[in-house]
Design brief:
- The protein is an alpha+beta fold.
- The chain has 2 domains: 202 residues, Hypothetical protein, domain 2 (Endonuclease III, domain 1), CATH 1.10.340; 138 residues, Nucleoside Triphosphate Pyrophosphohydrolase (Alpha-Beta Complex).
- Strands 1, 2, 3, 4, 5, 6, 7 and 8 form an 8-stranded mixed sheet that branches.
- It is elongated and about 75 Å long.
- The termini are far apart.
Length: 360
Amino acid sequence: MLAFFDERQRELPWRETSDPYRILVSEIMLQQTRVETVVPYYRRWMQRFPDPASLAAADEEEVLRQWQGLGYYRRARNLQAAAREIVERWGGNVPGDAKALADLPGVGAYTAGAMASIAFGQAVPAIDGNVRRVMARLLDDPAPGAALLAREVGRLVDPHRPGDFNQALMELGATVCTPRSPDCAACPVSEGCRARAAGTQGERPRPPRKKEIPHRVEAVAVVVRPGPTGWEVLLRRRPASGLLGGMWECPGVDVGPHGSEVDEACVVEGAQDVALRAVMRQQPPTEMRPPPLLLDRVLPAVDHLFSHRRVTYRPVRFHAPAGLPASTSVRWVGFHALDPLPIPRAQERILGGAEPEEGV
C-alpha cells in the first residue's frame, strides 16, 4: 500500500504541507465533497485565512461567502468555531491528541483519525467512505460495522508512516477500488481480496436503500425598489442554525409538493404574503398598515437539488415604494452590490434574472 501511494498519489495542495491547521481545513472541506471541487476553494481559503487566528477573527458573513458553492454550510461555521476554540483553548495551535481533536466542533471520528495520523504521526485508523468500500471488498463483507472497520484498519496501519498508510487506503478507494467497475488488475492488494476471489467485488459493500427525495415548491418574493444608485432588492438573513444558516436570500415560503396542484395563483399568493411579512418587519411599531406592493410578474422557475430534497423555486417580482427602512435581519441591497454577501447558489440564479430593465 505504501509503495502504491508513493507511486500513484495525486498531487494535492494539502499534501504539500505538514501544517495541522491546513490539513484540518482540507479534511473539513472534503467531507461529502469531491476532491476536484475542493482544490480551488482550499487555495482561496488559505489565502484569506492562513491560520486559526485569522479565521477566528473573521466576520461570519465573510466566512460563508468564502465557502459559498461548497454546500453543507454548517461545515464553515463549525470550522470557524473550531478555530476560535483552538485560539482560546490551545493558544492558536491545533491539539495533537486524537481525543482532543474529536472534541473540536465539526470534527468526528474520521476527521480526528485523519488529523492524528497525517498531521501528528499517530498510528490510528481513519475510515471514510473510500476506506469502508476497500475493506468491505478485502473482507468480502456486505456491511462491515464501525467496530470491525476500526479494529481491522487499526491492525493494518503502518506505525512508521500512519498518515501515508491511511491516505493510501483512501487513494486506493478513490482511484482504483471505485464504487463501479473497480480496476482489480491495478490493485496492489488484489491477491488478498476475498471479494475478488469470490467474484462479489461489484456487490461490496451492499448499497444503502435509496430513499425517495421529496420535491417541494417554494414561492419566492423578489421585492424591488428604485434606489439612489439603481434598483435594490429586499433580502432577509436565514437563522444561524439549520439549512443555509446565516446566508441571505429573497423571502420565500413552502407552498406544497411539486405537481399540478401548486398553480400560479397559489405561488403568487404565497409570495405576496411572505413579501408583506418581510416588509412589515421593517416598519416602526406605530405604522401598522403594510405599504403598497405592486405585483409585477412571475419570473422563471429555478430548480435546485439538496442532499435530502429537491426544491423548485417560483420567484414573483413585486415593486415597493422608495424609503422603506431596513433592520438587522432584513436589508435592501443594490443589485450591483450583491457580491460581498453570502447568497445560496439557487438564490444567485434567481437574482441573476430579477433586476428590472432600466425605467421599468
